[in-house]
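During the reporting period the student researcher (J.K.) took over the structure-prediction task from the postdoctoral fellow and processed the backlog of single-chain submissions. One of the processed entries is reproduced below for the supervisory committee.
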Amino acid sequence: MKVKQLNEKERPREKALLNGMKSLSNRELIALLLRSGTREKSALEVADELLCTFETMGDLGSASIHDVMHIKGIKEAKAVELLAAFEIGKRIALDDIQEKVQIGKPEDVVDWLQQEIGFCNQECFYVIFLNQKNQIQSYKQMFTGTLTNASVHPREIFKEAMRLGCARIMVAHNHPSGDPTPSNADIELTNHIVESGKMVAIPLMDHIIVARNAYISFRQMRLID
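J.K. obtained the following structure tokens:
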């Protein structure tokens, strides 16, 4: 079966070699990863279908292998390779924050959190464990689903914090709706974590809510002292 070819002006590889990777559009980067299209569509046209289906690069990066395979022309191997590229981006963002001398403000972790959970379709609750120098000691996704006092258990959070011997924690979760405004349940949950932290002398440094390209910080909103 003959695969539809691109003309010379449409070839992302040649454009990247001539002008650098930053010169490529999102569709061209995806086409470069796909390498080839189908009998009916070029790699660029398959990339267009992907971006039309998932709307943004963030949505695509959070898709599952099987979701990506619903696009005609993308089989398992291509889906795995494509999502591997997005996973590399997430890990680079994590490496950047782990190398920071000190985590002092929400912006130090927001880029990584938005890549990690900002585009997820269900709520994910992360705990970031910090040492005495406010460096990231470890992190863990601890709860998934609707987040309330009933579903998020501070005892589990601080059990892990004490096991690691951390000095303080940050927590973060996402709002799939796209609006990071904290709900009453979010505020109540945060207060519960703050009070539990006081009992074990491991303070909550901040609670960050990410939603696609937006975020809020409880400390910046003065919802945490």
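The committee noted the following: The CA atoms of residues 153 and 193 lie 9 Å apart.
J.K. will present the remaining backlog at the next meeting.
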